[in-house]
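Hi L.,

You mentioned the student needs an example of a multi-chain input paired with its predicted structure. This one should do, with 458 residues in total across all chains.
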Amino acid sequence: MKKVLLTLFPLITILLMAWGYHQAIYVAPDDAMQGYIFRIIYYHVPSATVAFLFFFVSLIGSIGYLAFRRNSPNRAQVADAWALAGAEVGVVFCTVVLTTGPLWGRRAWGIWWTWDARLTTTLVLWLIYVSYLLLRRFAAGPQMQTLAAVLGIFGALDVPIVYMSNRWWRTQHPAPVFGGDPGSGMKDPTMVNALLWNMLAWFCWGMLVLFLRYQVERRHQQYAAIEAQEALEASA
Amino acid sequence: MSSTLWTHLAKDLRIEWRSKDAINSMLFFAFLVVVLFSMSFDPRGSFAQQIAGGVLSVATMFASVSALNQAWAREIRHQVMDAQRMAPTSGAELFLAKVLANFFFVSIVQIALAPVFLVMYNLHAEGNAWLLILVLPLGTWALVANGTFFAALAIRSRNRELLLPLILFPIFLPALLGMVQATTNILTGESDPWLWIKMLTGYDIIFTTVSLLLFDVVFHAE
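Structure written out for the whole complex:
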């Protein structure tokens, strides 16, 4: 059953991504104001959603590691693997967001970048998680896992503060597609459909990569444990 | 004030009083940053008023990193840190003592730097100058509380001196924005700094509380 799922899920993901591409490029109409360039939203918004979701996974993993590290080491290792996978894959998706955003902004606003609330928050978030990954490289062993978990919690705490402070500072980013003001957002149902399909496709793709990264990290942990055991036995 | 906290604080102050390492290096470093910025941006007239807040905050930030790295590195010699770990007291008091000591040092640097700043940038506050007495300590506290915490975290890794700014600066960014905006608003008198003062206060309360709660986890990480 597990094997069937493991082969089926990537297949479904690839099909979904092809379908999402078709919807985004051929089915959805051009935007009335922005024309063709607006289609980048079908990659920008799903990537942003997935990135934020995975940073949240990382936060949960960090909290889980700190909670379990004393009384159930195995669960703590699982939590730590999720924390790492979430941060790492999240940074990749966040990089996609930070690349597609300026590409669109150059055409729509006439500028590549602006220090607006959401742009700055995303950039700071990216910086925080890159520093998190750096810490994981620079420190070693179980001590590193604890330190990384603490930094993960600090980073997550910082996000709402960064967001609010930048909102007070300045805001230029377009209003949200879902849950914005009544005047904003998408009016054409085929556009909304295309966006939803792409959200689903990129979510599945993200989950696939996240799961693979998690598995790699678990193997890595098991390998490290065996190595430590062998070193102990050799010295005894 | 509890006696443990007082003991740690008195020890740090005494060491600094005898060596004056942290204050001297910070003072010179901050002064250098101010000079470097002046040469890069050529501050004259109203432009000086605009950038002075940012230069002061960034100068303090860079300078304090050197002192914060030393704050814990000093404890590694002669296994002082191991002794502190074994001591049957809460790590939060040790942490708070270190923050207070470093806050004191950085504040001295700021007070010493202020006249230099006024002269070199030809500053005069258009808004309420007395509000600076509120803004600068709030910003400094945010910097020093987080910095002391992350220095204790970075000391456990290799490349410790390199790692501290790399993990401190991204987290400190919103506080830096608050500090710069509040100072600039006071100096130019263009808008009200109170929003930023409130934001800084909130940041200080949140991060100091979390640091106090999580310090033992970092300090005893093995």
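You could point out the following to them. Helices of chain A lie at 2-27, 41-68, 73-108, 117-138, 141-169, 189-235. The interface with chain B takes residues 66, 124, 127-128, 130-132, 134-135, 138-140, 142-144, 146-147, 150-151, 153-155, 157-158, 161-162, 164-166, 168-169 of chain A (CB under 8 Å).

Best wishes,
N.
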